[in-house]
Amino acid sequence: MEASCLELALEGERLCKAGDFKGGTAFFEAAVQVGTEDLKTLSAIYSQLGNAYFYLKEYGKALEYHRHDLTLARTIGDRIGEGKASGNLGNTLKVLGRYDEAAVCCQRHLDISQEQGDKVGEARALYNIGNVFHAKGKQQLWGCSQEPGDLPSDVRDTLQRATAFYEMNLSLVKELGDRAAQGRAFGNLGNTHYLLGNFVEAIKFHRERLSIAKEFGDKAAERRAYSNLGNALIFLGQFTSATEYYRKTLQLSRQLKDQVMEAQACYSLGNTYTLLQQYDRAIDYHLKHLLIAQELNDRVGEGRACWSLGNAYVSLGNHRQALHYARKHLDISREIGDRNGELTARMNVEQLMEALGVKEGDLSPCGSEFEMQGKCYHSFCYSNDSFAEHEPLDNQRAAPDESPSWCSCNPPVQPLIPFFLSLLCSVQKLGRDPSDEDCFFDLLSKFQSSRMDDQRCHLDEGANGQDAGGSSRDSTLNDMLASLLTSPQTEELFDLIASSQSRRLDDQRVSVGNLPGLRITHNNLGHLCADPDPQEPSDDFFNMLIKCQSSRIDDQRCSPPEGGPRAPTVPDEDFFSLIQRVQAKRMDEQRVQLLQISDLEVPQDFCCVPLAYTALIQFTDSDCIL
């Protein structure tokens, strides 16, 4: 006997609650294939399927089923269901980076919840809108060169809006007595105040978050709170207190068996001990970070660890070991295409070689040990056993933000080969170096301009080419155009175009009959044909929708290049990059404008002194959105 749609859906719900989203989606899809005439059941299946695909990070399918849910809820006049479907759509669009559309959907959820007197739904909608603005603010901050708290006005406005919605959410969940929701609100308020540079306020909220996490025994939330407290204390200059929180972060990460978070905590601890000038302990933690990065095949993380180790060994005066790690950092930066890392590593290698009095030819290829001709210096290599022996007194671990795994799909390049071969031949004929960029772009522009010419329509010229002939051709052409515009066939053509365009609009409309799994019977036909709630959306909703639609053209623009390669074992917003930006700005402020050379009287014994190179300390920030 075949299982009914409801039985399959209940089994899918059970599997999803147990954490088996893959199995749950299989049962939900089977339920859709069987189909049902119960519209409420089908709406629930759409919602559950959308949520399951969301957790599986298949956001396209999640979006599809949440849209089906929204269409069905509107059709049957289910206002509460429409609000929930709008909220789910908003969360999915937020993850896809479509923040304006997400804000419209979440605002719709809030409006419906307030209209229906649904306090729980209203609290969720307020939280979701805050989350949308929070994520948008973080994206705007990416690559921003300002110091913490010194933000562009648009970024500050976005984060302040997020804070306002979180505060409204906190007030409402306190009224409802929902302690778990209060914890989430406290955590996110701490995160937004941190981004705004209000570090004292951030610490206050994160301590509240920590207290509620302990109350519920939520170790993951407790670990995030410790990490966030450490980050905020760093900016207040309280490094010793920060290490205590980072060590608790490390300990909880190990309890949770989260290697990625453990690596991030070691990274943060290594950099904090560097700031405290306790270089031996810093090296110990950076070696732990390096080992985990190697186990996870995180080449970017390995490069950061080698960079930090090189800086620490320089501070201890061990230039040979520092050169070993600087060379490893250089090799890794070349491998992953990190241009900035490569330039910094090359500068470090050159300065260390000069300090040691060695030349490039005296060095062997960088491997597991540092070698010179006639000399051999073995670097320390820690096994799993010695790893534990060299660990500082406390056992700890740390946690990172979830990082998407990117895959690179290379499209076939065969159609481009003849074009670039012809370019290369042209370069060789000109006797110029193919690597000459100016030469290449000159040829490229010529090829592209000729392509444009190929698409132009050329009018045949008369044999005589006289002005009289040209004027007669113009009059003939005008007569042809006039006759074409007045002919009956032209009217038929315009009618055909109009009907075809109207059909295109119809193709974009949603038909209830196209909803998967819906069986239309006499029982539900009345619900499907009857008009839903006649209330129209407010003008504010349409204004937001127009604003959102106007931003669609931005989706067709090329995204800017990323700031550089990212790594799972290095926190998403690492302190090192931040300190680099801050130091660069400070150096600019200390530069002096040079006078005109004619205005200067240079002494005969004047000599130029090279600027001393100062290595920046690598540091990390692992701000987490709860």
- State the strand order across the main sheet: 1-2
Following the backbone from N to C, one meets helices and strands in this order, namely: HHHHHHHHHHHHHHHHHEEHHHHHHHH
The strand count comes to: 2
Q: Average pLDDT value?
A: 74
Distance between the termini: 45 Å
Report the β-strand fraction as a percent range: under 5%
**Count of DSSP-assigned helices:** 25
Structural class: mainly alpha
Q: What overall form do the CA principal axes indicate?
A: globular
CATH fold annotation of the domain at 298-359:
Serine Threonine Protein Phosphatase 5, Tetratricopeptide repeat
Largest sheet, in brief, is: 2 strands, antiparallel
Poorly predicted regions are: 367-430, 461-466, 530-534, 595-626
